[in-house]
Amino acid sequence: AQSVAQPEDQVNVAEGNPLTVKCTYSVSGNPYLFWYVQYPNRGLQFLLKYITGDNLVKGSYGFEAEFNKSQTSFHLKKPSALVSDSALYFCAVRDSYGGDRDDKIIFGKGTRLHILP
Amino acid sequence: DTEVTQTPKHLVMGMTNKKSLKCEQHMGHRAMYWYKQKAKKPPELMFVYSYEKLSINESVPSRFSPECPNSSLLNLHLHALQPEDSALYLCASSQDRGLPGDQETQYFGPGTRLLVL
Questions:
Q1: Cα A33 off chain centre by
Q2: How far is residue A67's CA from residue A72's CA, in Å, rounded to a whole number?
Q3: What is the pLDDT of residues A76-114, one digit of tens each?
Q4: Which of A31, A89, A106, B9 has its CA 20 to 30 A from that of A47?
Q5: Can you give the pLDDT at residue A102?
Q6: How far is A61 from chain B (nearest CA, A)?
């Protein structure tokens, strides 16, 4: 079965510093990988995805993620953190049944990012 | 318009009540989803509708009954719920099997926070 792991429950970063939120995956076949963000009392927002092509994927709000096949990782990064980046971040992977059945997303457990002023 | 709307924002109901959650999108998406999210946990998929037909039911108890009246609307009918059903219920939509990754690039509503007494 497909899965993603987010090893950190919480990450604290000072404003202006670079941030990394870690994600590793376990899939059979080619991975489709995603990052979503959830601000307090809100639904999830799509940030970025890796399907194929360049290993460095750029997304919304200045975020990017690096796909590393040898390390089976898809870490989320931002060069300079903002206090407004404080939120819950979910890494996700496609779970494909194949054929005519619809795919679904498998979410990691989430990492809470705190940006300290 | 990239918005998914959900009503109501909050709902308190007794275990004998019948209520409905509503979701609407006008992005022309043909796939719509219901998720359940407990505090500090990832969303759990409940149902998927594809072209107004139920595509995936993740073994959800029958006290939850989804309905898709048309391509823009998705309802979740609630009856005889239990206190453990209290959660944030999220609706999402996506393209249905367009380009790779389209189905997993989902747009979420803000959710309905449900409390069952």
A1: 8
A2: 8
A3: 999 999 999 999 999 999 877 666 666 788 999 999 999
A4: B9
A5: 66
A6: 16
